[in-house]
Structure formats: structure tokens, C-alpha cells
Amino acid sequence: MGLADALFPHFDDAWILHADDDLLVVDKPDGVASQAADPELPDDLVTRLKAHLGAPYLGVHQRLDRDTSGVMVLARRREANAGLAAEFESRSVEKRYVACVTGWPKGRSNATLRDVVVEGDAGRMRVIGARGKGQLAVTQVKVVARRAERTMLELVLETGRMHQARVQLANAGAPIAGDVLYGGAPALRLMLHARSIALRHPMGGARVTFEASVPTELDAWLERGDLGEAVFDDAKLLKRALARAARRRYGLGRSAGARETSAFPLVNEEGDGLPRIAVDLYGEHLVAQLYGDDGPWGDRSRRERVLDALHALGTQGIYLKVRPKQANVVVDTRREDLAPATPVRGVAAPTELPILEEGAPYRVRLGDGLSTGIFLDQRANRRKVRALAGGLAVANLFSYTCAFSVAAALGGARKTVSVDVAVTALEWGRENLRRAGVLERGEHTFVARDVFDWMKRTIAKGERFDLVILDPPSYSTTKRTRFSAANDYAALAADALALLRPGGRLLACSNHRGIRQDRFRKMLFDAARLAKVDAAQIKDMPPPSDFPVAVGAESHLKSALVTLRG
Q1: pLDDT of residue 397
Q2: Are residues 480 and 526 in the same domain?
Q3: Is residue 106 part of a domain?
Q4: Do 174 and 264 fall within a single domain?
Q5: What is the DSSP letter of 329?
Q6: If 341 and its partner were Cys, which of 54, 294, 367, 499 is the partner (CB 3.0–4.6 Å)?
């Protein structure tokens, strides 16, 4: 069995509840979409089932959200599909769910939620009252159990609206735990499970009921609430959290062809229910990043247990990076106590490990300090640069190992200028362009200089670019400058905007966790005013889809594309 089969299996026979010639009933795990969101990286239930079973046909008539688990019924033959469709359209199908919430009134054991819902912003639904133009949503609610302020509810959905249970319970003041969209309490996952479904068999006519057991996470949350860092002390829940995180990355783990990607995040901290740890996959090796040497990581035995659990996933080796609270003041990022040069589990990777990102080749060094040579959260932005760069002159500021320059060159940029104070990073970047086969195409320049100084000199000379990429560190100090993104980003972005020709674009990024997206937008408006340029559009770039965030949190990466009026 290869790593892809072990870490990103198409499906598990244990998830199949029933199979006959006409029907397939599954207990869909959370983290698996009902329908493909990205046709080039299909990760939906049907794609996975067809790969697992070799099934030529599967008919779908119900949809569960990606992070909702539970019973789904699919038709296995076209002859059965018509009968199944008629059954769902007749509304005679009974769907029972279990949800864990906070805020449900103590004296209220039963209720009927009857609301009119409409589509809102950012993929949300919203309730507009009990009347009005929209879709009527009706849910019967019954209390199953209570523990302190936590309640487990049984829900019978009489209608099938998008996010029905989630938006109605949130509107009733009892959002589902783990619900990022509707403000639920912190939890390992979205605490919503489709427990059973009852319907007439489409070919035989007899009424049948299929049921999926309530997942361990829901019972654990009801009893103990959000485990937080204590999840690392529960071997079963830790294993399930890691498996859930891998399911969310199935499309990347199984990518091939022009979109083949062999390096991507496997775990993103609280967004995957695992506080203060990020785990990245590079080929067949993992890099585990522990945030802070206190909290969960002050206990050495806990750290070892987590590394053992990661090693059990089947990769060849694990590298460790410990990021202290004030990582910006660390002078030597190659300290053995922070970033051991050799793996802490398994065998070593090659010193320079080749990876692919959407077909583009790069080299990384897993044992070379706290960084590896590429920032994986910028994958979508590099794709955007590749799409925009044809025929353009591109300036890549704070270029590090020039990954954005590689993307621009692969997209047909006629000229790139990569600017960074670190000579060794630029040498690495030059080698990245050479290995990608683009160094001899177009004009590619590498400038080892303080970015602030280079911008001022370049602006004074009158040299201009069509696309500027600005991705500074949150903090930096050189012999001539000190920079803090929180205080100085607007002034820095103003200089970057002054480098653009009319109609040019600035891709502005920041990973400063203290800067929210709305504040970041304001910084860019301020930058345009300082630079005295006319910004025709400032467009927020979507956050990385494989870096999920926790309830109430915002993506660490903020990005926007600023387009000047031509």
C-alpha cells in the first residue's frame, strides 16, 4: 500500500451501511463533500465511492455539508434513481439529525422552528422571519440530553434547505458547536450528524430505515465541552482528528497531471481541532510545527505522543520546528532545540527535496532551520500570478526563494526582478527557476538588497512594472530599516504602488495574525492615498481553502489584488 492509499484512501468499507442492487447507503464522514467544489481536484463522495467500488453510476438526491457526517442514500441503477427521486420529491422521507449546541433554553424540551430563509453573504443563509419571500424551513426539535450549558438535540427536518439546521438553530440562539459560519461554540468539528433516514425502497416499495451511530466527538463534547489542548491526551480523538484533517485534503493528496501537488498542509491548528500545531506534508515526509514551547508543548511526554501519532500515519519521516512566542526575535533559526537538522521520527529526506505545486517544480530543505524554502499558504496566490503574468514585467519583493517568480515565469512573464536582502535565498531562487526550465526564458534578475532601499532607488530612476508582489515578513530588521507590518504596511504598500505603471496590479499579502482583513483593506486604501494613485479596484483574495480556521477566527493570511486605473 502506497502513502496515498494509507493517508488518503478513497473510502472505507466500514462507512458502508447497506448495499443492494439498487441502493447504496453510507455513513458519510465529516470532511467529505457531497458534491465537488473544484472539478480539477475532485474530492466529493461520489468521486471517492466510484474510485473505491468501481461503480459506473451513482444517483444523488440529498446533500450534507462537508463537515456534517451521517446517513446518505444513493441510487446504484438508473431504474432505481427515478423511484428514489420521486420519494425525496414527495417529502415522505424522514431525516433525523443529532446536533450539539449551547444556548438552548433549559425549560424548552420540544419546539418547532418555522422560518423563511434566504441566501446571505459569504456562503451563509439567513432567516428573514416566519413570512416573506424566500424558502420555508421547518425543523422539529427535541432535547436528548443536557450537561451544564451544553445540549444534545434531535432534529427532524421536514424541509431540505441549505444549512437549514445550522441557520435555524443559530437564529434561535443555540448555534451548533463547531459551526464556523454561524458562531457556534469551540469544538473539534461541526457537531451535526445525520443519524437516520427512513423511506420506501424505490424498487420493492417496503419502508426501510437506515441509521448511523452518533460519532464519538459529539458524545465527548456533550460530556466535557471543548477539549482544547486536552485532545492530545485522548488517543482515540487525536487519531480521529488526524484522519479528519487528511480527509479534508483528499483532493490534494490524490492530485495528478497539471494540478499535481505533493506539498501542502495536513493540519492547520485550531481549524482542524488541534491547537497550536501545524503539520505539512512534503512528498512522503511531514514537518510538524509546534507554536510556543509552553502550553501543550511544555509537557515533553505529550509532544512525544503526538509525534508517535503522526508517525503512525505512514510517512517516511517527521521533521520538527518549534516556534517560540516571539519567533521574530530568534536570531539563529537553525538551533537544534528549535529545528533539529535530522528527523525526529523515521528516515531523512534528501537535503534538497523536489516537490510539485500544481505541476510547478520547486526544491525544499526540510532540515534547514525553521523554514523549508516555500510558504505553502500562498499556493492559490501563486496560481493567480501564473494566470496574470503573461507578457508582463513583474517585481517580486521580499522574494525569499523566488517561488512567486517561478510562477510568473511559468505564466510567461517577459521579465522578473526578485528582491531580497538574503543572498543565499536568492541563489536558491535562481536554482528554482533553472530547475523549472524558465531561467533562460525572458529576463530574470536577482537583487540582493534591502527592499525599502531598492524601491526608493527604482522609483527615482523611473523604472515601472506591470505586476508587483508584496509579501513582507510581519517583522524585519536590517542595518538600515526596521519594519512592523502592524505599523508600517501602508507606507510600504505606497512605495510598491508607486512602482506600477497605469493599469498595473499589486498583489499585497500579510500573514500578521493581529491584522484582520478589514484593517488590511484600509491599509491598502491608505497606501493608494499616500502614493497619490487611483486604485480602480481593491479585491480581497479568498483565504487558502486548505487552511481552515477555528470558530470566531480569521485566516492568518490576508491578500488583496489592487488594480490601478489605466
Answers
A1: 98
A2: yes
A3: yes
A4: no
A5: G
A6: 367
